[in-house]
Amino acid sequence: MRIALNNVLVEDQDKALAFYTEVLGFQKKVDLPMGEFRWLTVVSPEDPAGAELVLEPNAHPAAVAYQKALKADGIPQASFAAKDVEAEAARLKAAGVVFTTDPTPMGDTVLAAFDDTCGNLIQIYQAE
Q1: How far apart are the C-alpha atoms of 15 and 19, rounded to whole Å?
Q2: Which residue of 10, 31, 47, 113 pairs with 16 in a disulfide if CB–CB is 3.0 to 4.6 A?
Q3: Residue 61: phi, psi to the nearest 5?
């Protein structure tokens, strides 16, 4: 068994696709119409055959409440690995990304969190 898909709730799929590809640097993998919305996934260019992140519309009222509650409590909805969190945070800040937690040493790793402009906080952590 392996993880193939994970999702992040988003307020607007087009806006999310632009942020996750143009700013974060992921690549669009699947974009299929599904009625009012789309089955829309992105992957890391470092592992294009790896796990896909589904940019899932928050159209259900419970999804909206969940997403807002996590953000209000400062809880990231997803966590991504970076080789160098300090460098990645500097790159993203230069692109206008707003960080809610600057790179912070936490034991053997470094963590940071930012607003994805789509209703979520996203955490990055240093992977060795």
Answers
A1: 6
A2: 10
A3: -55, -35
Q: What confidence score (pLDDT) does residue 42 get? A: 98
- CATH top-level class for 5-126? alpha beta
How far is residue 104's CA from residue 20's CA, in Å, rounded to a whole number?
23
Q: Which residues pair with 104 in a beta bridge?
A: 111
Q: How far apart are CA 34 and CA 124, in angstroms?
A: 30
Which two tokens mark 79?
A: 């966590």
Beta pairing partners, 78: 122
Strands 99-106 and 109-115: antiparallel
pLDDT tens-digit series, residues 22-61: 999 999 999 999 999 999 999 999 999 999 999 999 999 9
Strands of the 5-10 sheet, one edge to the other = 5-10, 52-57, 37-43, 27-34
pLDDT confidence of residue 128: 65
- In the chain, where are the structural domains located? 5-126
